[in-house]
Specification:
Blueprint (H helix, E strand, L loop, with lengths): L17 E2 L2 E2 L1 E5 L22 H8 L1 H15 L6 H14 L4 H10 L6 H6 L6 E10 H11 L3 E10 L5 E6 L6 H13 L6 E5 L5 H6 L2 E5 L3 H4 L4 E3 L5 H5 L1
Helix pairs in contact: 1-2, 2-3
């Protein structure tokens, strides 16, 4: 498990639009595959995730087969939206007995991408406000918030486990694929920023819609389809500061 106590706390400048002659901007990060490594790729899937596929892997072969089937349905357009896909996947987690213990182990064992901690901590918070927007789990985004000193995060799914350690309830937000843009627009409005006052950092094919509209987009070891549309592509987070500064 990697933990990184954060040296950052919100300051007055974090909420100020103008810093000298510089207009504060948002830096929006995807989470799974961008901040955290995706170490498990189930056969027959084309969208990386740190936790979704990791859960299926922990629950066994039958859960893997069911998870892969949902990817097929998504690819064929059989889900009306991302919320429906998540609901179907959650049924798999309930069917095969996901426990809070296993879930928390997966969250805490997720590994950061190389050099990401230093790169994110090195961003000047008086000039840039950081936002996490993820199609994954709130719990993983929360861990990144604590470790990296980030005060804004939106994530698609949050789990609640009961006294018996079984999945009791959940909360869903439509913040993947094109839905990510809605949350960015919300943050721009709240900070009084313009449509050009942000940049995006992502990695996957699901980030293509947001990268296409971002004024500046950075692909971290990007999927081939994302590489075609991003402004910049990096292989190492040590290079991120060159694009932000």
């Amino acid at each position: 498990m990697q933990t990184h106590p954060s040296p950052y706390r919100p300051t007055e400048n974090s909420f100020t639009r103008d810093v000298g002659d510089f207009v504060m901007k948002l830096v929006v990060f995807d989470v799974e595959g961008t901040l955290f490594q995706t170490l498990i790729r189930l056969p027959g899937t084309h969208i990386d995730s740190t936790i979704w596929q990791g859960i299926a892997h922990r629950l066994g072969e039958s859960a893997i087969a069911d998870e892969v089937a949902t990817h097929g349905r998504w690819g064929r357009g059989e889900y009306r939206n991302y919320l429906e896909w998540m609901k179907d996947t959650i049924l798999i987690h309930q069917k095969y007995g996901l426990t809070g213990t296993v879930f928390r182990e997966l969250i805490e064992s997720a590994q950061y991408c190389a050099n990401v901690v230093d790169a994110v901590r090195g961003i000047d918070r008086a000039r840039f406000e950081l936002v996490l927007i993820s199609g994954g789990f709130r719990e993983l985004a929360g861990r990144a918030q604590r470790d990296l000193g980030i005060i804004h995060a939106f994530a698609a799914c949050e789990y609640d486990f009961g006294p018996d350690d079984r999945l009791r309830s959940f909360n869903l937000l439509p913040c993947d694929f094109r839905g990510k843009l809605d949350f960015i627009q919300l943050m721009l409005r709240e900070y009084g920023l313009g449509e050009k006052d942000w940049m995006f950092v992502g990695d996957g094919a699901n980030d293509v819609p947001i990268a296409q509209v971002a004024p500046v987009s950075v692909g971290y070891r990007p999927h081939a389809s994302l590489r075609e549309v991003v402004t910049h592509a990096i292989e190492d987070y040590a290079d991120l500061h060159k694009l932000i500064d």
